[in-house]
Amino acid sequence: MKKLPNALIEKQNVVNNGEIAVVIADDEGITLKRFYKESNCIRLEAENPAYKAKKYKNVRILGRLVYIMRSY
Hints:
Layout: E1 6-11, E2 20-25, E3 29-37, E4 42-45, E5 54-56, E6 60-69
Antiparallel strand pairs: 1-6, 2-3, 2-6, 3-4, 4-5
């Protein structure tokens, strides 16, 4: 059985650039991505380099990643 990591999320509606945030994005639904506010958009980047960053006009921030625990 595959074990998934446990994440501790702090509920808040603002995050700093570079923090990993839980957001609602139009085409992704709820997602956990690194957040960057740019001059005319929000850029969300996955930690996995196989996925390209995506840009959005608006996203809804639900919280920020505080801690993650993995089992091996």
